[in-house]
Fold this sequence. Notes:
Elements: H1 3-28, E1 29-30, E2 33-34, H2 36-39, H3 43-68, H4 76-103, H5 107-114, H6 116-126, H7 129-142, H8 152-179, H9 185-193, H10 216-229, H11 231-235, H12 239-251, H13 254-266, E3 271-274, E4 290-294, E5 297-308, E6 315-321, E7 333-339, E8 347-351, E9 357-362, E10 373-384, H14 398-434, E11 436-437, E12 440-441, H15 446-474, H16 479-503, H17 514-522, H18 532-548
Parallel strand pairs: 3-6
Antiparallel strand pairs: 1-2, 4-5, 5-10, 6-7, 8-9, 9-10, 11-12
Helix pairs in contact: 1-3, 1-4, 1-18, 3-4, 3-15, 3-16, 3-18, 4-6, 4-7, 4-15, 7-15, 8-10, 10-14, 12-13, 12-14, 14-15, 14-16, 14-17, 15-16, 16-17, 16-18
Protein name: Acyl-CoA dehydrogenase domain-containing protein
Domain Acyl-CoA dehydrogenase/oxidase C-terminal: 396-544
Family: Belongs to the acyl-CoA dehydrogenase family.
Amino acid sequence: MSLSQAQGIVKNVKAFYNRFEKYLADKAFENNNISTDKMDQDQVANYDLAWIAAEIFAIDEMIAYPAKVEKGAGSIEENLSLFFIADALNDIVARFRLAAHKMGITSEQAEKELGTKDIYDFIAKFSSEEFAGKISDTLASTRDYGAYGLNDDQAMMADTFRKFAEGQVKPIAEKVHRQDLTIPDEIIDGLAEMGCFGLSIADTYGGFQSEANPDHTSMAVVTEELSRGSVGVAGSLITRPEIVAKAIAAGGTEEQKQKWLPLLASGEKKCAVAVTEPDFGSDVAGMKVAAVKVDGGWKINGVKTWCTFAGMADVLLVLVRTNPDMSLKHRGLSILLAEKAPTRDHEFDYTQPEGGRMHGKAISTIGYRGMHSYEVVFEDYFVPDANLVGGEAGLGKGFYLQMAGFAGGRLQTAARATGVMQAAVEKALQYAMDRKIFGKPIAAYGINRHKIAKMAAITQAVRQMTYKSARLMDKHEGQMEASLVKFYSCRIAEWVTREALQIHGGMGYAEEYEVSRLFVDARVFSIFEGAEEVLALRVIARALLARALGLKAA
């Protein structure tokens, strides 16, 4: 039984999945489109549909993984793949039981269609304690978590930023976290010198992204390695330039591109994103922060929240309602670039010469410290016409430009989750080898061996999903894959870091050990950049149902 047999098993799984997808699509179809109201009558089923789609994506990548990195039978790469596939199939089959019941399919019929005997045999062999122990023992003796599958340039970047994370980020990560400090200038300046902020910006505008041959994988690799050091101190620094630059590149005027993209790429100007409102998180259509046209520009009034890095930022991308007609929903939104003085303080209050005011206060959080997320209040805050993204042509297009930026952000968030998981696996393995209970290392106990194998397999699966999504984005594709890997990685990172902490026992709950920080940092992934439920139901499931009926997703 091998990966080739797994392909046959997965073929049956995909056929049953397609049947489930079509069933939910037919139920949600109304007036020649997918009805959100009808989808909401099956929210649990649609969430499961999105999750299973993500797991199938992961399985496909792990089936291809050993050959892609030119590793054969018995390699750590193949063993991680077999273990992951077995574990994911176990979860999928459990979810399919509920799906079959919902569709009115008998257990006998479902088992026949799925070929459950082959599935159960595969699961029994490759998720067994014995097989997991083999993987765990290999990891303990070699510290080889599997080849990444990078080209020479990407591997060099991974090595360069891994060294920076080890030498510059990790030594201060715990201090920044425990004392809730702001990221030191030497980290930001160091990454700017390395070209970090220009990784997603075209070389024609001072960045390092080739317009002719894009390479989103390098951005993911850098993000992962920095997040392995600390997601709050370094791993998230690229995210905001990524989002803002992509929005400007997608819809800005040529003058705006010429001005802002080189400044963002060099790190001369730092940026933040102000989209979420206290009463409107992912419900962008209902947002109320307004900008009123005045002579020479716009005046913003209202409150934005969860504006990460707003204190240190020189400019905020602000999604505002420029058309007061609420019936327009998201079509009444535009993007303004609001400039301000940067500060390292947890509170700021900036008054413009024109009299406008912007003041903000950092929100206390359990993790993800260093970046700091602010609630920001705008009072008649003036933004010149030159900073309306897209100019007159950009009016009403803010939602779409923001989404152009967030697509790359989702990919980057998956890379952040991968880095945090990799750090957690490494910490768990080392502690399990060092810690002895009842006369032997806890790494020798079956349950811990199984946990370590599963953690390593999941981390590699997410990494390969992320790289696949990045390669698709190079071809201006991969929107669905980026959403799937963001959804899956963020949720599963909680499990990986939770088990890493659990392996540490009581010491894992103490701030003395890095794993406690990894655990609370991972918890934010399923919330920011779009809560997992909204991403699953409003983005992924809706697109899947539309696809099943041959419709264009709204």
